[in-house]
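Lab manual, section 2.4: Encoding a predicted structure.

Procedure: take the sequence of the chain (71 residues), apply the prediction step described in section 2.3, and record the output as structure tokens. A sample record is shown.
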Amino acid sequence: MTEFMLRPDAKERVSLGELAKGVSSYKVTQGDNGQVTLTPYTEIPYAEKWIFENPEVLEEFKKHLEQKQTA
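Recorded output:
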């Protein structure tokens, strides 16, 4: 785990810079003690959502990717 300090700018914003690379959104959780946890998410296009909702298709897709990587 890496730990470092981020400081808000004059408008009270915090820039994540390179940490946000490839991330489309974050789930924010704030504990009772004020601790904030950001969980990164990468969203998929709506047109591809059906693949992840269909376990059989997803499994076939994963098998196909594995075959491509070993070829």
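Check your result against the sample. The chain has a mean pLDDT of 93.
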